Amino acid sequence: MTNSRYTAAIEAMLERIDSTAKQTDGTFPHYGDIESGEWTTTADGNWTGGFWGGLAALGFAASGDKRLAHLADDITAQILPRQNSDTAFRGFLFWYGAAVNHLVTGSDDAAQTALAGAHGLLTSFNDRAGIIPLGAEAEEAEAVGEGAANIDAVPGTVALLSWASAHTGDPRFLDAAIRHAQRHIELCIRTDGSVCQSARFDTSNGALLDRYTHKGMNADSTWGRAQAWAMVAYAQAAQWASPSFLPTAVRLAEWWLDRTPNGGVVSWDFDAGTGPDVPIDTSATAIAAAALLKLDRLVPERTDFRDRAVAHVEALLDHLTPTGPHDSRPAGILMDGCFDKRRDFATRNELIWGDYFLLECLINLNNRSDTLKL
Ligand code: GLY
């Protein structure tokens, strides 16, 4: 059954895809101004550009408008040159920017680009340590290289490698996916089910050396997106790589649910407190809601995952333009995403991945019989 609030939000987000396409023309939207709607773009996609391709593909899923399938293909083609970039965030680029396009629209070109990205990631796999390291070109990371790991290198990456294995019949992709996911449990997930973003490891065997963070408050705090990325990553791992990851996905989600009893938008870091001077992060909440909807599908006997995802989405819709009849801003902006509070960088902005996950949630909530299995 459809819901009129969700239908209106989807319409607004489709308008936003149009207004974004008019502005970006061959570049990738990165973060946007919430008053003017103006995007800051990147030429090569940085780590965020794949979400623009995924968003266009979701737009096609929501509307059936073939122009959006063509747009998704154009964006996917722009991602291809990144196949050998030395960054683990190619998982974001090639899953959301290419494989999602293929899975949603059926594009064969997108499947080929997704496979190119999977091959690139496989080349970076450290077999002794059982992990794809962050890499020397990892975006926005201070300590990068062969002995560094980030939880945000698991979402997309594990799904992409697992999909590539199924698509080609080559078991090396799945083996790398499973070992990469398993190693990050040891490196980044604490015993209480919370997540630390980053870790250093011994490159000869993958053993944990120490934990730290690039974007959270400190090594002992829980950055909102660290937890949210882990939730979506292990829900994807359970679906695409092995059901043995399901208990981890559930444990991560339970930690989140214990700390968001009312389902509102979270602060940028769970240890930052709340209040008018503490930025919230709509993108973290959107990622988590998408993860909860994946878990709803994977663990149908649990009704709370869907209920809490709905509460998060309802809260997010209060941050989507237009917020009332007199709001003259471009429609479909998901406001109040916090890119990087540590550096005071784009702390109250539209974020392209926040848009992606909100639209994924809205489509799935409005169309339960034909859920996107992404
Ligand atoms: N690098 C992923 C993030 O900032 O969320």
From TrEMBL:
<protein>
    <submittedName>
        <fullName>Unsaturated chondroitin disaccharide hydrolase</fullName>
    </submittedName>
</protein>
<keyword id="KW-0378">Hydrolase</keyword>
<comment type="similarity">
    <text>Belongs to the glycosyl hydrolase 88 family.</text>
</comment>
<dbReference type="GO" id="GO:0052757">
    <property type="term" value="F:chondroitin hydrolase activity"/>
</dbReference>
<dbReference type="InterPro" id="IPR012341">
    <property type="entry name" value="6hp_glycosidase-like_sf"/>
</dbReference>
<dbReference type="InterPro" id="IPR008928">
    <property type="entry name" value="6-hairpin_glycosidase_sf"/>
</dbReference>
<dbReference type="GO" id="GO:0000272">
    <property type="term" value="P:polysaccharide catabolic process"/>
</dbReference>
<dbReference type="InterPro" id="IPR052369">
    <property type="entry name" value="UG_Glycosaminoglycan_Hydrolase"/>
</dbReference>
